[in-house]
Amino acid sequence: MSTHDDETPFDAYREAVDRPLTRLFREYGPGRLGWFASGMVANFVARMASLVPPLLLGVAIDAIFVGEGAFELPLVPGGWLPTARMAQFWFTIVAIAGSFLVVALCTWIYGVTANLFAHGVMHAVRVDCFEKMQRLDMTFFDDKETGEVMAVLNNDTQNLERFLDDALMNSARLLVMVGGIAGVLMYLNWHLAVVALVAVPAMAAFTVWFMRAVEPRYVRQRAAVGALNTRLENSISGVSLTKTTNSEAHEIGRVRQASRRLYEDTMAILRLSYVYRPGMELLAGLAFAATFLVGGLWLATGTAPGPLTGELSVGDFVVFLFLTQRIVDPLAEVSTIVDQYENANASSERVFGLMDVPAHVDDPDDPVDVTPVEGRVTYDDVSFSYAESEGRVDDGADAAFDESVVDDVSFEAAPGETIAFVGPTGAGKSTLCKLLLRLYDVRDGSIRIDGHDVRDVALSDLRSAVGYVSQDTFLFDGTIADNVRYGHFDASDEAVREAATAAQAHEFVADLPDGYDTRVGERGVKLSGGQRQRIALSRAVLADPEVLILDEATSAVDTKTELRIQQSIDRLTDDRTTLAIAHRLSTVKDADAILVLEDGAVVERGDHETLLAADGRYAQLWRAQAGDRETAAETLVDGSG
Questions:
Q1: Architecture of 377-391+400-606 per CATH?
Q2: What number of helices (H) and strands (E) belong to the chain?
Q3: Lowest mean per-residue pLDDT among 236-250, 308-322, 619-633
Q4: Measured CA distances, 151 to 19, 24, 353, 598 (Å)
Q5: pTM of the predicted structure, to 2 decimals
Q6: At the topology level of CATH, where does 9-356 sit?
Q7: What does the DSSP 8-state code read for residue 586?
């Protein structure tokens, strides 16, 4: 059962991120600050202009309608203002209309610039996250599941966009409105302003409490989103297995459990919000009621109540009522701003947690030039375990995980030779070959290509020289031609057809209604396993690498097709170094050398005839596949099968 305490190395990097939103501006603000500044200025002007109509209304009431005050405005020279009553009336109308026009124009400018800034940052963050993900070691993907990575790329970046687009600008609007209203009220009557603004310190303290209480809950909610995405992605990807094993109820239960966790974490946030939002509105409402009470008594009695002194005009009282009501809305929005801030803070931690995961497999500072590659491959006392590849410290908690997958393996393949690896499942055959591509790095020993340690070679040079055909064939959703030329995107249609012909794929492709333009579906689901393998082999043929790795490349085809593909493979491997992993020993009996692996170690080596003569593990496997039932049974009993 998943718990909130489940942690991975990725979570440790996330927790180490310091001031993530500040880092967001520091790393992604430069180059976009013009849009941000324009939006902030437009927002400021719009909010200040929105304060003009209430102020003009108060002045007009006192000077024009009541006739008890001067027609004067703060920061406006008296010579600019009309003196005749009707002129003052029309001036007020025009000024109010003009202020609303300024508000509309500046709000439009703010909306455009804020969105350009927010979406520009979101785009850059998403692309940088994906680029970082592409450069991470395979150990990261062994540990993290697809759904959680997708949550970072989609949900978390969207949270950042909402914060930059809405919360940030609303925060500025709040500060301007509260500051502007407070300034106007203090200018008109500072005694009554103290009453109107008395709730602001209480609101600030209430907000600080809410932010501290809600932050860890947002962190848990973001983790729950990732867990649910992972569960949904796994369930949808494995829907065929679910149906064929009658396990729909089991999958529904697992999704229900993950969704329940998200529900509970979300409700934990909302329970605080249910207290915070009404509390803020209550404080703001009490401030408005106090203003009306004190100001109303002041006007009704003609005397300042209590310790207050001075005079209060009808116009000033109307302005106070308008502006204290105006202050309620932005203060009540603090809860939404805090929600978006905390959500963005938790999301930015996850984004930068991903950014900070180190790539242990990376290009050397000064890579050696191995071109042109001859194809000599040397393994010298190579050992590997997944624990060390992630930089973990062996505390004995997971001994099975920490034990060596490859243990002290040595061999050499001369240019043009074929070295085959056989052995039971889990013997380390695939891992041994992946080390050549530096999908992982060795723990001890070294792997050399043409005498150069692969860790001293640029990854692009190394992987361009080594082709890899996996037993777990992956095809992208696109056409057959797109998948054949993947990695060599400028290959001509003729080259694609020639590669497919060499891999025994052209015949079935030509029989399809759309031929090479046939879409294969997600993960190639519209093709059979054997067809997918032939497409993958076509891709390797097109790449024409100097070193070729075949990881059970014909495991999903029938015997007849296997024989035809094997003939193509023989031609393909005739002049290049080949490392072949085989379950069917017949496909590698002509290899220059065959290595038998068990528990990551080489227990036998030699060519086919030599190993048969030795009558060891290889001979037992050969006889088992040749149909010797008694030997096969013995092999299974002693665990060597």
A1: 3-Layer(aba) Sandwich (3.40)
A2: 26, 10
A3: 619-633
A4: 21, 18, 13, 39
A5: 0.72
A6: ABC transporter transmembrane region fold (1.20.1560)
A7: G
